[in-house]
Amino acid sequence: MANQIGNYSLYIALFASIFLIFQSSNLIRSRSKNLDSTIFSALSVQSLMVLISFFSLIYAFIISDFSNETVYNNSHTTKPLFYKISGSWGNHEGSLLLWLLVLTTFLLIFLISSKKLLNKYRLLTVLFQELIIIGFLLFILFTSNPFLNLFPIPKEGMGLNPILQDPSLAIHPPILYLGYVGTSIIFSSSLAALVCGIVNKIWAKHIKKWIIISWVFLTIGIMLGSIWAYYELGWGGFWFWDPVENVSLMPWFCLTALLHTIIVLEKRNIYQSWIIILSIATFSLSMSGTFLVRSGILNSIHTFANDPSRGIFILCFLFVLVLLAIFIFFIFQKKISKNLSKSFLVSKETAILVNNWFMMFFLSVVLIGTVYPIFLEVINGSKISIGPPFYQKLIVPFLIPFLLFMAVGPKLKWIKDNLSKINLNLLILFILSIIISYLLVKLYGVSYLFIVPLFGVGFFLFFLTVRDFFSKDSTLPQKISHFGFSLFILSILFNGIFAKEFSSNMKVGDEREFMNKIIKFENLKIIEENNYKSLIANFNISDNKDSINLSPEVRIYNQPKTLTSEADISSTFYSDNFLVFNVIKDDGYYNVRYQFKPLMMWIWFSIILISAGGILRYFKNDD
Amino acid sequence: MYGKKVKLRAFFILLIFLSVALIIFLAFKALEENVVYFKSPTEVKNLSELETNKIRVGGMVKKNSIITNESEINFIITDYKNELAVSFKGSVPNLFEEGKGVVAEGFLKDRSYLKAIKILAKHDENYMPPEVNEALKENK
Questions:
Q1: How do residues A269-300 score in pLDDT, each as one tens digit?
Q2: Cβ-based contacts of A235 with chain B (< 8 Å)
């Protein structure tokens, strides 16, 4: 029953989409002064239909309706209710339905919140957005329909990959998608603004809200995925430069560049073309991110729920959209009102341009690293992978000038400033930072020379952003975000350089020595749970001063038959002690991995601070 | 004489061009050193010259081949045509199991022995490296 409801509501949404495309182009052609109420009603109907269809899928998951193929493939009766619900978007079909839901809802919100703007602009945005929506609807209905019937009805489902049964991963896709799909509104409305010739201060103020909200969701979404990888995968890190992680980082760089540049448009009415290009690029990267993750083209350790045949559709669709966007850009680009106000080299505008340069540089590095293996495989069939050293080598050296610019840039004034800002105070602070970092490096005996300037500029940025809280140079949201970022840089530097790792194969009762600590495997318990069997190990880690007990766990799920290991992490203000163990074979040995991770908490905390700045900016009425 | 605007535009275009050139140059220089090739045990066997760079070898963990001691895990990767012995010090992922797909990253000591520094397994219980899939089909 739920199957039919879900399916038919999607068809109604498809008709609404066709109607909206015709109606909005008619209205644009007839230069109607009023926004036809039919647009609003059709859009409401569409959103409602997609919502109904989404809820009927969730319903099918809750009652374990195995006549639905998607439910059969991804669920199981013994699964906890929470994961039955989150399982509905943990698979390919459901996740696309979620994309669609956010697409339609965002468009509705856009229409409601843009009443003060030009009619033609609103209609055009609806038109472009509906083109995206209709593409997704066709894609869902004809290649990945979540409401296919199965007959005869199976007694039991295949189960959800247990590794996905985790709270942070349950909310990670929806949050990330809110960010991704938010960029679609930026894409549609920047094209609409271009066609109407209103790429100006007023438009910037309006679209800035959408940029901020997408950026906040994308940032938090990436963080949640990263937290999940940290404790669930047992790799004991927060970023692995895996292609699937990279594709979420690429739109983030673009969006961050846009977030800064839009302020220039708002204040100075320049860089219009660049903003349109960035908007197009951000959305293309968001969509190709979904495409790459879903299509299975990426040779990643963690691609879930994929099917290569579907990839072609998204690729063609994306290609058409980008081509259309570029076409529109070149036709209407002349309409941009040429602003003859002067700009000088030393100014905030230039500083933001420098920020953009670095964002584009980091983006290119990640793009090349992610796409090159696919490219090479198509060209000559050789299979390669590109590891973390590639990214570190290209990104880390550039962090030094980047952080330096970030420290000084926000201090500059609009239009024209001079370098007398770089006064004695700043210089003393800089030298102090270098000295601190030198002492640190000396104290801990780090052997890399470039660590000194890297840490140095990290501290410099940190001190300056702290000092900023007492000045009136910039707004509070900016101060919080920039301070958060400096904290983030310092935490990942500390974390990367001072992390220690130890692994060994141990039997129950064994002891190992590591870093003046004794790691003891005390005992092992077996507990039968509802849908899995759990092995809980008890470890004691002690040094002269204190000792901690860690109890990592291995879960043996029966449906599907899989092992997962749950790391045990004891987090403190200064560091994390991370312990994970694994069953290798039934011979008494367990594979144990212990990691000492300094300032891990601070990485998460600093990302929350960065996003908090964005949230504050969103709710704060502008000066 | 050209106007100030034209000059500014030319300057920007030059800057963009230089940036692109810089990125491409740096990226490909870094790529040369950091690319890890993926091979199957059969491809390793047929290497004309022993690969000295880091490589990845993918296949299935042979049944009853895992031998563990205090510091090392030894096992055999097979693509059902050829085999490769692997020794590894470190931690293994969840789905490292006999009869399951695995990817070992490390250095070849000879054509039948790999000293691994990293073991990867896809966290999907039905995963098989594509090469193994093909090899399996051929053997049927």
A1: 888 899 999 999 999 999 888 777 766 666 55
A2: 93
Give the model's confidence band at A305: pLDDT under 50 very low, under 70 low, under 90 confident, else very high: very low
Domain CATH number, residue B119: 2.40.50.140
Together in a domain, B19 and B87: no
**Residue B12, C-beta contacts closer than 8 angstroms, at least 6 positions apart:** none
Provide the ipTM. Answer: 0.85
Token reading at A174: 């929806």
Residue A623 has pLDDT above 50, yes or no: no
The lowest-confidence range among A153-167, A395-409, A424-438, A560-574 is A153-167
Taking the domains of chain A in order of start, what are their residue ranges? Answer: 1-165, 500-601
B69: chain A residues, CB-CB within 8 Å: 505, 589
Is B60 found in the same domain as B78? yes
Nearest CB to A503; choose among B33, B37, B90: B90
* Contact state of B69 with A161 under an 8 Å Cβ cutoff: no
Structural domain count of chain B: 2
What angle (nearest 5°) sits at the alpha carbon of residue A108, between those of residues A104 and A111?
A: 140
- Asked if B107 contacts B52 with a C-beta cutoff of 8 angstroms, the reply is yes
Interface of A with B in 431-470 (CB under 8 A): none
Look at residue B59 and give its three-state secondary structure.
Answer: strand
Could you report the per-residue pLDDT of A560-599, keeping only the tens digit for each? Answer: 677 788 889 988 888 899 998 888 877 788 989 899 999 9
Q: Which domain holds residue B128?
A: 37-139
Residue B125 has pLDDT above 80, yes or no: no
Same domain, B46 and B22: no
Q: Are residues B60 and B126 in the same domain?
A: yes
A560 and B125 in contact by Cβ < 8 A? yes
What are B68-103's pLDDT values in tens digits?
888 889 999 988 888 999 999 888 887 788 888 888
C-alpha A197 chain-centroid distance: 32
Does one domain contain both B45 and B71? yes
Residues A50 and A305: their CA atoms lie apart, in Å, by 22
| Closest of A383, A388, A356, A359 to residue A372, by C-alpha | A383
Contact B134, B124 (CB under 8 A): no
CA distances from A306 to A144, A216, A296, A483, A559 (A): 11, 27, 5, 39, 20
Q: Does B132 share its domain with B63?
A: yes
How buried is A93 (Cβ within 10 angstroms: 0-12 exposed, 13-18 middle, 19+ buried)? buried
User: What is the Cα–Cα distance from A360 to A347, expressed in whole angstroms?
Assistant: 20
Write b or e for each residue in A417-430: b if 16 or more Cβ atoms lie within 10 A of its Cβ, otherwise e: beeeeeeeebeebb
Give buried/exposed letters for A384-395 (b at 16+ CB in 10 A, else e).
bbbbeebbebbb
DSSP code for A409: G
What is the least distance, in Å, from the CA of B45 to any CA of chain A?
Answer: 16
